[in-house]
Design brief:
There is one protein chain. The chain has 384 residues and is α/β, with parallel strands linked by helices. The chain folds into two domains: 211 residues, Glycogen Phosphorylase B (Rossmann fold), CATH 3.40.50.2000; 166 residues, Glycogen Phosphorylase B (Rossmann fold, 3-Layer(aba) Sandwich), CATH 3.40.50. The protein is built from twelve helices and 13 strands. Strands 3-2-1-4-5-6-7 form a seven-stranded parallel β-sheet, sandwiched between helices. Strands 10-9-8-11-12-13 form a six-stranded parallel β-sheet, with helices on both faces. α7 crosses α10 and α9 crosses α11. It is globular and about 70 Å long. The N and C termini lie close together (10 Å).
């Protein structure tokens, strides 16, 4: 199979869960024998990495490389509202003009990267099947601030157009598939349900797990209201002072938002798996109180390191978290978040250890890339 994978960047050259997902697609499709032509980008003011650097980043010492790599620069950002959409459309046009789409069997596009190609197909230009993958559809979910609600409204129309004009849509499943079928004029047979996944390297051995007598919690993410950090801080400030716990934060949390107390620790932004794992391996419970999500990589990573999970029931989170490995709570419900934290602190060590083992087992059996990619190839092949 010759597959064109169009992305809006791959890690580590562009950071984010979507970009990490793109890098894994490129890697594991290739390892499974698919000829991948990767289109990726960096910021307008960044230097493009060489093809050798990209292959080294993806495959390390493996004697493997992508079929072809096309690097582009994302258009310079503007200041007028709606500039991201205009730049995304411009980028999709750059992509279309950079390569002959008809040399491929199937085209996998991320976000708005296939926008211009779909326009051309709608005008009658013959092109292979084009699929689209939007990660969280956050623009159709519960947004906590007025600014985010306005931004979401701007994104909804173009997102609908791209989904309704794609031949196929990739979904994480769960509430994400429900949302797609409700919001867009598409059929069930057009939707591919595939979760996200992790590399085997993320897995921790079960015999390395250690449950702390003092409960250790961790939040991993940005200082963004959508990530639920404001709710979390409010709850942490009212938790009973006598409870035996620590709370750690991984991510760029500004000092003004940091709680000044000896039981709170701020590690800043950690960019490598090794540094992230070093912190996660000292924790018991990962907390993800987001208002809107797709399938958060942070939960997958926490589970792979053997952590119990407290998370809100948004996007496809229900496919990762249940009573067997933690607490799935309602969105933007501070009382339920407080209860889940207190319940986690009160668990005896054996019960908590079982939740942690269940997280690890679930990743091993359901969420590893080498298994997920084979199912994806079979699904795509069945449509060709």
């Amino acid at each position: 199979m010759n597959l064109l994978l169009i992305t809006d960047g791959i890690t580590p050259y562009v950071t984010g869960g979507m970009q990490r997902h793109s890098a894994n697609l490129a890697k594991y499709f290739t390892l499974a024998g698919v000829n991948i032509t990767l289109v990726h980008c960096v910021g307008f003011d960044q230097e493009l990495p060489s093809d050798k650097m990209v292959n080294q980043q993806l495959f390390g010492k493996l004697n493997t490389q992508l079929h072809k790599i096309i690097g582009l620069k994302f258009p310079k950002p503007g200041k007028i509202p709606g500039h991201y959409l205009r730049e995304s459309y411009q980028y999709s046009k750059l992509v279309f003009n950079a390569i002959d789409f008809n040399q491929f069997d199937f085209i996998y596009t991320k976000g708005f990267t296939g926008w211009y190609a779909m326009e051309q197909k709608k005008k009658g230009i013959k092109l292979p099947p084009i699929s689209v993958k939007f990660h969280g559809y956050e623009m159709y979910q519960n947004m906590p601030s007025l600014k985010q609600k306005i931004e979401s409204k701007l994104l909804q129309g173009p997102t609908r157009w791209n989904n309704e004009n794609a031949d196929y849509i990739f979904s994480y499943g769960g509430k994400i598939t429900d949302l797609i079928l409700k919001e867009f004029k598409v059929s069930q047979k057009q939707v591919f349900d595939f979760t996200s996944g992790l590399n085997k390297e993320w897995l921790r051995s079960a015999n390395e797990l250690n449950t702390q007598h003092k409960r250790k919690f961790v939040f991993m993410g940005r200082d963004e209201e959508r990530k639920g950090i404001n709710d979390l801080n409010e709850v942490l400030k009212i938790l009973p002072e006598h409870v035996n716990y620590e709370f750690h934060f991984i991510g760029p949390i500004p000092e003004a938002k940091q709680i000044k107390d000896a039981q709170f620790f701020y590690h800043g932004e950690l960019r490598t798996a090794a540094t992230i794992c070093a912190v996660l391996d000292e924790m018991d419970v990962l907390v993800c109180p987001s208002h809107a999500e797709g399938m958060p990589n942070v939960i997958l990573e926490g589970m792979a390191r053997g952590l119990a999970i407290i998370a809100t029931d948004t996007g496809a989170v229900e496919m990762l978290v249940d009573k067997n490995n933690g607490f799935l709570i309602p969105i933007h419900n501070k009382k339920e978040l407080e209860n889940a934290l207190i319940s986690s602190i009160a668990l005896n060590d054996d019960t908590l250890n079982q939740l942690k083992l269940n997280s690890l087992k679930k990743i091993k059996t359901q969420f590893l890339w080498d298994k997920l990619i084979l199912k994806m190839i079979l699904q795509i092949s069945s449509r060709l």
